[in-house]
Structure formats: structure tokens, C-alpha cells
Amino acid sequence: MIINKAGRELPDKIGNYIVKPYQGPWDVEPCNKPVYSNRKPSVTPRTGSKVVKTLKEAVLASGLRDGMTISFHHCFREGDQIIGQVLTAIRELGIKNLKFAPSAVVNIKEPSLVDFVRDGTITSIEASGIRGELGDSVMKGLMDVPVILRPHGARPRAIEAGELSIDVAFIGASAADEYGNATGQIGPNACGSLGYSFIDATTADKVVIVTDYLVDFPCVPVSISQQYVDIVAVVDKIGDSAKIGAGAARMTRNPRDLLIAERSAALIAASRLFRNGFSFQTGAGAISIACTNYLARRMEEKDIKASFALGGMTANIVDMYRKGQVRVLECSQSFDSVAARAMAEETNIIEIDNALYSNPHSKGSLLDKLNFGVLGALEVDTDFNINILTGSGGEMLGGLGGGPDVAAGANISILTIPIVRGRTPSVVKNVFTLCTPGETIAAVVTEAGIALNPKHKYYDELKEDLEKTNLKIVTIEKLRQIAESMTGVPKPIECTDKVVCIVEYRDGTVIDVIRQIKQ
Amino acid sequence: MERKVTLKRTSLYVSCANPANMNQAVFYNEDCLVYDLEDSVPPAEKDAARLLAYHTVRYHRPEGKYVLIRVNGIYSEFFEDDLEAAVRARPDALRIPKVESAAEVRMVSEKIGKIETAAGIEVGSTELWCNIESYLGVLRAEEIAKADPRVVALALGAEDFTASMKATRTKKGIEILYARNAILLACRNAGIDALDAVFSDINDEEGLREDTMLAKNLGFDGKTVVHPCQIDIVNSYFTPSEKEIRYALRVLAVVEEGRKMNKGAVTLDGSMIDKPMELRARTTLAQAAAAGIKIGGLGSDNK
Description:
heterodimer; A: alpha/beta; Glutaconate Coenzyme A-transferase; 2 domains; 26% helix; B: alpha/beta; TIM Barrel; 8-stranded parallel barrel; two-stranded antiparallel sheet; 10 strands; globular
């Protein structure tokens, strides 16, 4: 057993996986070899078309065999119908024992992903999260090989370091031409930025574009260009547009969420970094969207303009851009249809590679330049460690997303969280699963007050800035007391010794493991 | 008993049939929090609500707020049990619905006194807010306001009042104008606080602002609110102006001087400063502080 720098107990080996224990947010050197890729020089088809009529044909043409690794992106969110269709075609061809490596796994209900594991089509999984039925089954011990969970920035890092090797990438695109130029910005089921799939396009051995909307050659805009694409599979429907992300998300009316959002915006506005040219990332989620709106108001009051907004975009951030409040939107994901289509319409709303957004082992990710990042979580403990994976009953409720990346990159990382959710305290002594290390979290904003982390590198400045305001600053310990005085202390969740998930940090070290829940 | 300054800019009702809301209500900026056993609690849940109110106020009382429990009506089957639990929970005050006479107030005060004695609570420490919700209540507001030293505020209940008058409730509120003024007159005469009625459309921010502006201009000390989204807006209207703050500072300066020199009576600009005026000055400064206005000497930053 090892104890890593975050205080978590880890086995030194889990099956064939050698555990490199977490050593600190910025302490690990990148791998010292040229970037790894499965892409080979190839010859293009003389027919001038890469189109196949069925997914089965596409799978066969890709040369997919037992034991290989397949990948998908998650940009269609709950409306995705590609993953299910592709896996069904694979299963019908009798291909088994695959490693399933999407950029995240959203909660697809039909078909059930658990069935593909049970029948042996999929025998290992690497993703940033596995919520829903699949996640709960994994927690109960579904898989023989532990699932590897990585934050967004760690996926391109791991691929370039040779830790994750993709054989066939299935990339859903809402529009494509017959030669493989593809995008998510136009078409009836537009999902917006395809940034999470760029690394797959450039490093997989074979790349299959899956689309329901073939356009005349050449497709513009080009998110993924033809030089990386082997096959174009045309299906009837790639997704449910309503679930992909319909119109602009309405701002929440929940007074608690509004209070937390307003307080977060006030914290940002009080900081000395809030000045012309600042940058921010707020993202989706009820509190985040409200926070963005309050921030926009304060920017207008003080006549402050941002240089860029980063990460997942929503309609209200697009609005800010159109009003001239933000110069550039660096868009790694689009959370609603307004944001999805805005890239094709506006010059400085640009689609970015997820690696550009968050890869820690590159020549510079945009997170390095980020002033403020707003995060959500399921739990935070009195060392400011965050849990964004597991719920109070031992369910898989979330995904790592880009949380650990934003926390490490932003000057001031702000966690917004209600101190209790129903009967469960959110501020606890020790989080059940440690995903983001406390020393990368600057502030926790709750309805009961704001706690600043004395171990964060910006603590002194932030404290000084906030003391000039009326904002209620309390200790994290006080927040825990308030939470537990309302809910009591929950019984600890009992686990067996079997590791079901390995939670990697940005650099590939292991920050925590999740063990099987005792039935 | 020395009356201390308590801000009553906003008082928020929270139903004791809704524990989630009870948990959340303590985090907003309301000055006063009213744990309700009356209109927001269905009959089948009156007993559970009573127990929850007792437990919450007695053992999980929010800090920094003036805490009340609104009991059921004096003639209801729940009143006696409500009173017993509510007094023993030790809130700052009880809020009594539909008060219509000074005799009722004295009766309630006596009952409370007995419970205070039995529970070892300082007799007279439990204050009373009287809800005026009918034409009789309005007609007798003057005597109700002076009926007992426990009474520190009257609050207008506009929906029930309008019903008793066979009037139509409107947002502009002309039908409650007389009632508002009658209550204000009674409260000023008795030296206590006057609370304006609820604005029930929580989606109409503009309407809330107009209504609150009117209440402030008429002279109300605060307003009852029904949803947290109304709190910050209403609080903002009860923030004193710079002129009012400066006047209050002057009042307190002469009072302090008078104390030092052992003077019996003090004057400012030719007028006598009595205890209620001193209390109003302290309240003005407390409102200013609550609104985040920093008051200081030279070099202080009043942005």
C-alpha cells in the first residue's frame, strides 16, 4: 500500500496497472519521447468518395478486431444516438473484448451500455466519467478490469504519451462531405464544437465519421479535415436535437442557487484580477449560468471587458460576446443550440481542440492564461479536496470533466456548492472520492458564506481584496459544522478491497481509487 | 424594558410544513424570519409543524436574525398548544394573526406570562407582533398598538383585510390605503414599528418596487415578504439616505453630550429629542450598516 501526496491509500499495482502515486499538482515532468500516434500514411480511394451506407460496412472497412480500442466524443450529450448504433453494429459482427475510450460517457438509456459489457463486447473502459446505469453497475463490480477515469486535459496527454492507443475513432458530425471533411457547427443536429475528438482524428489508426447530413463537397466549416478521415458512414439520425441541447438554458429561479451565483460574481468583481483584459470560465449548470449573468452585469457597471471566455459555451456567454463584453470565445464544447451555431456565425467565437484547452503537458494550454474558473462538485472536505464523481449513497453521479484542469490552471478557482443537498451534507471531513486536490482550490462559495483556502497560492491577495467588501468570509470548518448541524454525519460508505475505478490526475498519477460498494 | 434596535426591513414567512425551505431560509438577507404554523400549514400537518418549529427555534436558531413564530388564530383549536410550544421555543416574538381588540392582546399576553413563568423564561421577554387583517382590526389599531408592553409591531394582512371589506385586491393598493395609514398612525402614537403587507406576485419585480416605494414613503418600517427573491429588493428601499444618516448622527451626538453633562432633556435645531427619536436615530444607523454603508470620519470610504 502507498499513501499519495493527497493522503489517499493506494495499492502499488492493480492487475497490470502500475500505480504512480499523485505527487502534487505541478510536480510531474512530461514523458520524454516524441508524441505517440497510430496514424499511418495512407492512400486515398480513387472513387473520390469515402461514403459507406451502413455502420456495419464502416466497422468492417475499419478493420476492427477483437481486443482493439474504440473511441467516441461526448458532444451530443444526452441526445447521442451514435454510440448505441455503432456498438450495436459491432456486436452484430461478433467483435468482442474491446476497450471503450470515449471522451466522457453520458447517460445513454437506450441501448444500455451495461449490456455491451455483459455480453463481452466491451471489457475495459477509459473515460472522464461514467454516469448512469453503467456507472452504478461498475461501482457494484461489473467489470473485471478497473475503469480508468481521467480529466479532460489528461486524455490527449495520455494518448501522446502512449498510455492510451486508439485503433478506431468513431466521430459523430452533424455535417460532412463525401471525402470526410466534417463539423458539428451546421446541420439539423448541430452539437457545436468537436474539440474533444481532434486528438482522436489525428492519432487513431482508422477514423470513421458518422453523420446524418451529407453536404456538397467541400464542407465548410471544417472541424475535422479529410486528411484524417478513412470512412464516412451516413445514418438516418445521429441524435435527438432536443436532448443535444435545445434553446438557451433558462436562468434558474432557485433562490439558493441565485444567492451562491451572486456571491461568486461578487467575489470575482472584488478581486484585483478583475480588470480590462481578464479571462473567465464558468460553464454550464444552473449556478454557473446565473453567475455568468451576474458577472456580465458587474462588467457593464464597471465598464470592464474580458479578453476571452474559455471552455463550454452557453447562449448567455454568446450574448456577452455580441454585446462586446468579451473579445474572443474559445469554445471546447457547446452546451446549447445557440452556442453551437454561433461559431459559424461569428468571427471570434472559435472552436478549439480540447488539448489546446487543457493538456498540461503541451507547450501551453489556454488554462495557463485563465484568471477565474468556476466549478461545481458533489462534495468538498475541510482540506478543500473535491469529489465530483461519487454520491452519498455510493452511486456514480458525476464525471471528472475539466474540473481538475481548471482548478490547477486558473489563478482563482472558485467552487460553488450548496452546503447541503436534501439530507446530505456537501461539506465533509473527508471526501469519499478525491478528484481535485485542495491546494488548487482558492475559494468555496456557499449560501452560508465563503471559505478561502489558506494553502492556495493566491490566498493572501484574495483575502486582502475580499476584506474590503461586505462578503461573508467563514472558515471551511465552520461550513462543515453548519452542514452537519442540519443533516447529522452520514454513515461511511462500506467498500470491499476490489478497485473498480482508478482516478487519475492530469499528469497520469493516481490521485484516488474507487472500491466496489459492499452490497 | 429598554427597547433595543431591531431592524424589521424585511420579514420572511417560511412554512413549518416545509423543512427544506426552513433549512434554506436562514441564509438570505431578511432581518426577521417568521416560522409559520398558520396559513401555510395544512390542518393535517399542524401538529408536526408545531414540533418542527419548536425544535428548530429552540435548537437550531439562526444567528443574526430576529426570529418569530406565527401561531394559529386565537379562537382556533390549535392556539393553546401552539402558544405552549412557541413560547417555550424562546423566539424573539410571537406573531398573532387577525388581532381585533386590545382585550385579545391582554389575554394573549397573560397566557404567555404564565408559560414564561412555568418554563423559567424572563417574564415579559417574549415580544408580540399583531397582524391586522380585518376592518375591526383597523378600526381598533390605536388601542391594539398600546395594549401591552410586549407589542412591538403591527403588520397589515392585506388579503384578509380586503376580503373583510368586500373590496378587490389590486397591485396599486388604493383599497388598502386607509388601512395602511390607520396602522401607521396607531404605531407612531404607540412608538412601535409598522410593517406593510405582502406583495404576492413574486414574478412582478417592477410591481414590487412600486409597492415598496409607496410603503417607504408612507412611513412603514418594513414589509413582509413571501419569497427570498423579494428580500434584497425590499431591503434596498429601507436604506436611509445620506441626509437621514447625517441627521441621525447629529441626534445621537447631542444625546451623548447630554448624557455626559447629566442634562435631563436635550434639543437639536430647537426641537426636543425624546427616547423614540433616539431609537429612530439608532435604527437609521443600523439600517445603514446593514446596507453596507460605511459611516466614519474624515478619510473613510463611503462608496
